[in-house]
Amino acid sequence: MSQEIQAVPGYAELIVATFSALKELGGSGKNNEINDKAAKLLDLSDSVLSIAHLNSSSLTEVNYRLAWARTLLKNYGAIENSARSVWSITPSFSNKDTVDGDYIEKIAETKRTKRKTARARNQEMNYQNCRWKNPVQKFRKKCVHGEKSFTKF
Question: Is 60 exceeded by the pLDDT of residue 94?
Fold first, then answer.
């Protein structure tokens, strides 16, 4: 990872900043308002704010991560997407001053790991449960499962 990217705050810090930004905006705001307020709260320099995301000409790394921070907060139930590019704090979190960014990030990582494990297990089970009725079906299954060598029938 380049030193430029390392200067960008992590997801846990951005989650807290995003929630705080929404609080300061009165409980709701548009993407650009939330991004600007979060950057101010984190006191990010112009050089950090201008780091491009993966050679993108239109998206910065900070804005990319702030978008994910909003998604993680939404999945946690702290905010909702009330209209296109408009976010608001949910009633159950309106009385909270802050959120635990590390905890929310850890929950998201746990869910992602479980999904990957389940997906891999399902693929393995599907592969093991293949039943070959005829050589053509065997050939098709090999193609579907990504085998590169084809056998003669």
Answer: yes
Considering the domain architecture, whether residues 93 and 127 belong to the same structural domain is answered as: no
Q: Which domain holds residue 113?
A: 105-144
DSSP-derived 3-state class of residue 24: helix
Question: Looking at the domain assignment, is residue 149 inside a domain?
Answer: no
pLDDT digits (tens, 9 = 90+) for 96-124: 999 999 999 999 888 888 877 877 777 76
List pLDDT tens digits, range 128-142.
555 555 555 555 555
Residue whose C-alpha is closest to residue 25's, from 36, 15, 16, 14: 36
The helix or strand, by DSSP H or E, that contains position 28, with its residue range, turns out to be strand 28-30
The token pair that represents 91 in the structure block: 């009633």
Per-residue H/E/C for 64-88: HHHHHHHHHHHHHCCEEEEECCEEE
